[in-house]
């Protein structure tokens, strides 16, 4: 009898886990984000942001940026805005270059004029987020 209860308990946890992960659909957020790149910016890459229901406090990606190129990183959450999503850009030395929070205000995008070719890091965090889910698009112009 105890074995049956244990098996049922395990099955219940598996279904709950799958349901909570299924609620985050970053692919849909990315689809909303790409057309929101400002005029003149060409789409480079999209990023899915899945904080696993709050279990991850940050999601990080890297990308090689080229000197003399302007980059735009925008944010989109499931509701089409960027509520609770923050992006911070770091250079190869992990020095903070830009963030989407300025004077306590959350911006939907950051624009960065690259002065040095190298690997840059995009770190996505969640500020008062309940969804822990979203998407981002990276674009460039010369």
| Total count of strands | 10
For the termini, the CA-CA separation is 69 Å
Shape: globular
Largest sheet: 4 strands, antiparallel
Question: Helix content range of the residues, please?
Answer: 10-25%
CATH class: Mainly Beta
Rg (C-alpha, Å): 18 Å
Strand proportion: 35-45%
User: What is the typical, i.e. mean, pLDDT?
Assistant: 86
- CATH third-level topology: Jelly Rolls
| Count of individual helical segments | 2
Order of helices and strands: HHEEEEEEEEEE
Strand adjacency order, main sheet: 1-10-3-8
Number of domains: 1
Provide structural commentary:
The chain has 142 residues and is of the alpha+beta class. It has one domain (25-141): Jelly Rolls (Sandwich). Helices cover 20% and strands 44% of the residues. The strands form 3 sheets. The chain has a 4-stranded antiparallel beta sheet with strand order 1-10-3-8. The longest helix is centred in the first third of the chain and has 21 residues, at 2-22. It is globular, with a radius of gyration of 18 Å.
List keywords for this structure.
142 residues, alpha+beta, Jelly Rolls, 4-stranded antiparallel sheet, 10 strands
What's a concise summary of this model?
Helices cover 20% and strands 44% of the residues. It is built from two helices and ten strands; from the N terminus they run ααββββββββββ.
